[in-house]
Design a protein that fits this description.
306 residues, alpha/beta, eight-stranded parallel beta barrel, four-stranded antiparallel sheet, 9 helices, 31% helix
Length: 306
């Protein structure tokens, strides 16, 4: 018997048909997956991190496998904000997706101009990346201090009415304070965690495997760190939280939502199984049936600490 369940969630006033979002940097702009399944089966897509001007990214090698995860130092390779708006955004919207534009920058002016250009488009939400560890200027340097996070949030809030999601880095001493700083300057929600900073060494050559020496560590191994940080932040802010970091199964998604996330993003698992988000969606539906839930929001933030 096929029992229909409403998996929709609302984040920062935006309705998602289900809470599973493809994470920025792992799904491109969606076009690479249209031969596999209709993209509107996902809750939404957070598009490839986009900068004001086109960016080549870092030299290869820039991917390294590691137990229960991977390292990447891709470095925000992207076609620039104008190409995103003119070429990729119309295609993504035609697919019927909830589209989140992910924006990165080296300077406050970079962020300002990119977000200004997006304000007049039909993107549903803007995710402001202040947490990429793989660029030499900007990126995570804005997200490692309360002042930096506040400055970026204040700058972009002034030039858009779009819902703003600030993407936080885990490479900090106190992620709660940084989330609060973003909230104070007008963030509508926060997403976390971006990748942890990691390194692998080739013991034959005695050189780092990545040409950039270090890279962002993601995958199932980081999941407990992500759950802990989502739980801490969700209990400290009054805005919505989107959780990510090593989610592979529907049980992981439920756990992340119990920690306080309204929705989740999946990334690294897509590289090994591009159908993994759909499997998580089906698993969430079954979880609702088994537990007689009318809404997934019934489980958000329901963990009971000892």
């Amino acid at each position: 018997m096929n029992i229909e369940k409403d998996l929709s969630v609302t984040v920062a006033g935006v309705r998602f048909p289900n809470p599973v979002i493809a994470a920025s940097g792992t799904y491109g702009f969606g076009q690479d997956y249209t031969d596999l399944y209709p993209l509107n089966k996902l809750g939404g897509i957070s598009c490839k991190g986009t900068t004001l001007l086109p960016k080549d990214g870092n030299p290869a090698p820039r991917i390294a496998e590691t137990p229960a995860g991977m390292l990447n130092s891709v470095g925000l390779q992207n076609p620039g904000i104008d190409a995103f708006i003119s070429k990729y955004l119309p295609i993504a919207k035609k697919e019927g997706n909830v589209v989140i534009a992910n924006v990165a920058g080296a300077t406050l002016e970079d962020y300002k101009q990119a977000v200004q250009r997006l304000d007049g488009t039909d993107v549903d939400m803007i995710e402001v990346n202040i947490s990429c560890p793989n660029v030499k200027q900007g990126g995570a340097s804005w997200g490692i201090s309360c002042d930096g996070a506040a400055a970026v949030t204040k700058t972009v809030r002034a030039v858009t009415k779009k819902p703003l999601m600030i993407k936080l880095t885990p490479n900090v001493t106190n992620i709660v304070d940084i989330a609060k700083a973003a909230e104070a300057e007008g963030a509508d929600c926060v997403s976390l965690i971006n990748t942890l900073l990691g390194m692998r060494i080739d013991i034959k050559t005695r050189r780092p495997i990545l040409k950039n020496n270090v890279g962002g560590f993601s995958g199932p191994a980081v999941f407990p760190v992500a759950v802990r940080m989502v739980w801490q932040v969700a209990n400290a802010v009054n805005i919505d939280v989107v959780g990510m970091g090593g989610i592979t199964t529907s049980d992981d998604a439920v756990e992340m939502m119990m920690a306080g996330a309204k929705a989740v993003q999946m990334g690294t698992s897509i590289f090994t199984d591009p159908y993994s988000p759909l499997k998580v969606i089906e698993g969430l539906k079954q979880y609702m049936i088994d537990n007689k839930l009318n809404s997934l929001e019934e489980i958000t933030g329901t963990v009971q600490p000892w």
